[in-house]
From TrEMBL:
Protein's name according to its UniProt entry: Amylo-alpha-1,6-glucosidase
Taxonomy, superkingdom: Bacteria
Stretches assigned to the Mannosylglycerate hydrolase MGH1-like glycoside hydrolase domain: 317-614
GO biological process: carbohydrate metabolic process
InterPro entries: 6-hairpin_glycosidase_sf, 6hp_glycosidase-like_sf, GDE_N_bis, MGH1-like_GH
Putative glycogen debranching enzyme N-terminal domain residues: 39-232
């Protein structure tokens, strides 16, 4: 009788698979025990839970972070070693601060009830300002007797690099320490492997009853109906001689700065109160994501994982907001021009003329444990830079910046026609130059995002469909800039190059059997015959022929793509379709916004209205009326909201800009600086908007206030006020 042998099964941990296939995957190992809230000011942000604590509950990327390093990993408030009860937790509507209301649970001494729950009211007020986290803890006794209790603040830090927080493992780390610096100050320090000393300085006012390197304990004897307050500051890398200013002075200065930031932007009012809330939240989110840099304001990509300069995200966000506040584009263009690649560096995927993808200031980036100190591994940032520069000049008439940026524009065009097209076939392609970099370098940069119809991953030098559209639009835009500079021959050359690209593109990418465009060409020039939203972004660039644009649009509005909430990134039925994936079936608001601009370009305003309404309805279900980076691509069901994606950035810049872009697409806004004219091409308001008022819509030195009203499928225009010389007109071309 044969002996049965047990089958041997080797199970490779998913984390090990992902470390190879997707080295910068962001894991989600369990649900958040408490909801998270975020605050940001310039290069500092904090992720707290609903109690105002850091690191007290599982499931969140908690911490106080500055330039990609965590400066506080734990800050927990307890009463007599017990967690207080949550009454409420609210961000201010301008995102300038978090207020948390807490109360005491029933507190016992052995079996004896010392005092009942709901006796002590605690209000935590938290904000960030110039690299310092401020907190005021207000305490009031609503009981009839003196309340005696200990209020403890428990804290600690690991000085983890942001990539460690995201899940990266390190073989070695630096050395941390903690010490008391007087009766009211604790200094936590870390000497990194990069030989940089990082410090967190915690200062308490008044001085605690007992202070240690990881706790501050206040023993309070609070008479009935009396109140007191404790103030805490946590400073990131500030010198010992630099004392934080008073809490209330900093709070007022912070709020004044936030109000000033948008003082020149167009103000929008509508007849729909929920949509007004969506717009207010979007503007507040963009406000905190804006970071003052030496080159101007720059929208950092998102919190918590992408709170830094990203080329693609900054360029697209600036493009989305160009009609409201063109000053954002000016800051983005100047900053990216300043960091344009000058030399070849394979680890950084850098080549002369390329525009930055991402920059990081943490220890791992400095040591090149990750390649992102200055990383250029995006194939689309460079053409988007050229495109935004041209659109900014058209929008504003500001030709002075054109003189400043033209060398960077020419260098970018040189990369597009040179190293960006390694085989000389006229298409811009990418291939990761090192094992440490990103395998896919378009906006869909997951390791499995670019694939063939059978699901196999594309290999070799990959030419993405939408990138060719960006290049086409960039060359057209650069040609107009060249004419403005008097460079007529260069303008003609760029126009001819754009026309040749459009012809080659139609021949190589059009899929007649699918009636859409290929996702990409792989290294063997085989088209990835997959129906994706990338084809929709082509409409935005204008590279698509009129008849084929209508075929693409019709496909995108069918149920396989359009869920009722928005357009999926990948159609149902494709090999790697998964509505819960990051890029292969989810819904990205910014993707839908660019598609909406493309639909408007081809006069398809009915489809614009569907996309607009879907995303508005989705936002109305979201916490704070805030559109996330992405959400799941499940079909819309009656009496149910959209399904969230667990590790989406909140807030995220181009998602926050999306409601403004959808309004732009619906109104068909066009700006002609040379004629001082604003045109509304085929304007159409969705059914949930009966009226829109735009105040302070600027063009050059002039501005105008407009009221638009919906009349079924028509829109009427009323000019409420003008400042300077400006013309406004409606153009109907359908």
């Amino acid at each position: 009788m044969a002996t049965k042998r047990a089958a041997q099964i080797t199970i490779t941990p998913l984390s090990d698979i992902l470390a190879v296939e997707s080295p910068f995957y962001i894991p989600m190992t369990g649900p958040s025990a408490r909801p998270r809230r975020t605050l940001k000011h310039d290069d500092t942000f904090v992720v707290l839970d609903s109690h105002g604590d850091i690191g007290a509950s599982a499931g969140g990327p908690d911490g106080l972070f500055n330039t990609d390093t965590r400066y506080l990993a734990r800050l927990e408030l307890v009463l007599n070693d017990m967690q207080p009860l949550l009454l409420g937790s609210n961000l201010r509507n301008d995102n300038s601060g978090l207020t948390v209301d807490l109360t005491n649970p029933d507190i016992y001494d052995g079996d004896r009830l010392v005092f009942r729950k709901d006796t002590i009211h605690i209000v935590r007020t938290i904000f960030l300002w110039r690299g310092i986290a401020y907190q005021r803890i207000g305490i009031q006794n609503h009981g009839e007797q003196t309340a005696s209790f200990d209020l403890s603040l428990l804290f600690d830090n690991d000085f983890a690099d942001l990539f460690e927080v995201r899940g990266e493992r390190r073989a070695r780390r630096g050395v941390g320490s903690g010490e008391l610096s007087g009766p009211a100050t604790v200094v936590l320090s870390y000497v990194g492997l990069d030989d940089i000393v990082r410090t967190s300085r915690l200062h308490f006012d008044p001085r605690p009853t007992r202070l240690a390197v990881n706790s501050a304990i206040y023993h309070l004897d609070l008479p009935p109906q009396q109140s007191t307050a404790i103030f805490l500051t946590v400073s990131c890398n500030t010198p010992a001689t630099e004392v934080p200013g008073p809490f209330f002075r900093g709070l007022l200065a912070h709020r004044r700065e936030m109000r000033r930031a948008w003082s020149g932007a167009t103000n929008i009012e509508t007849s729909n109160n929920i949509f007004n809330e969506v717009l207010c939240q979007s503007m507040a989110d963009l406000n905190i994501l804006m970071t003052q840099t030496p080159h101007g304001r720059y929208p950092y990509a998102g919190i918590p994982w992408y709170s830094t300069t990203f080329g693609r995200d900054g360029l697209i966000t600036a493009l989305q907001m160009l009609w409201i506040d063109p000053g954002i584009a000016r800051g983005v263009l100047r900053r990216l021009a300043a960091f344009q690649a000058q030399a070849v560096d394979p680890l950084a995927d850098a080549e002369p003329g390329k525009i930055l993808h991402e920059m990081r200031g943490g220890e791992m980036a400095a040591l090149r444990e990750v390649p992102f100190e200055r990383y250029y591994g995006s194939v689309d940032s460079t053409p988007l830079f050229v495109l935004l520069a041209g659109l900014y000049v058209e929008r504003t008439g500001d030709e002075s910046i054109l003189d400043e940026l033209w060398p960077a524009i020419e260098a970018a065009l040189g990369w597009i026609d040179g190293p960006g097209d390694p085989d000389g076939d006229g298409f811009v392609e990418y291939r990761c130059a090192s094992e440490q970099g990103l395998a896919n370098q378009g906006w869909k940069d997951s390791f499995d995002a670019i694939f063939h119809a059978d699901g196999t991953l594309a290999e070799g030098n990959i030419a993405l469909a939408e990138v060719q559209g960006y290049v086409f639009a960039a060359k057209r835009s650069a040609a107009r800039c060249a004419r403005a500079l008097g460079l007529t021959d260069r303008a003609r050359e760029l126009e001819r190059a754009a026309d040749r690209l459009a012809a080659r593109f139609e021949e190589a990418f059009w899929l007649p059997d699918l009636r859409t465009y290929a996702l990409a060409l792989d290294g063997k020039k085989r088209p990835c015959k997959v129906r994706t939203s990338n084809a929709g972004q082509l409409l935005f660039t204008g590279i698509v022929q009129e008849d084929r644009a209508r075929m693409v649009a019709a496909d995108l509005m069918r149920p396989a793509f359009f869920t009722g909430w928005g357009i999926r990134t990948v159609s149902i039925g494709e090999a790697r379709y998964n509505p819960m994936s990051y890029h292969n079936g989810s819904i990205w608001p910014h993707d839908n916004a660019l598609i909406a601009l493309g639909l408007a370009r081809y006069g398809l305003k009915h489809s614009v209205e569907h996309v607009f309404k879907g995303l508005f309805d989705a936002a109305s279900y979201m916490d704070l009326r805030r559109l996330p980076e992405l959400f799941c691509g499940f079909r819309r069901e009656p009496r149910r909201g959209p399904t969230l994606y667990p590790v989406a950035c909140l807030p995220q810049a181009w998602a926050s800009a999306t409601p403004f872009t959808l309004l732009e697409a619906a109104l068909g806004l066009e700006f002609d600086a040379a004629r001082n004219e604003i045109r509304l091409r085929n304007p159409r308001l969705p059914a949930f908007l009966n009226e829109v008022i735009l105040r302070g819509l600027h063009l050059g030195e002039s501005s105008v206030d407009l009221r638009l009203r919906r009349h079924d499928e028509d829109v009427s225009l009323e000019v409420l006020r003008t400042r300077g010389h400006i013309q406004v007109s409606i153009v109907m071309t359908r």
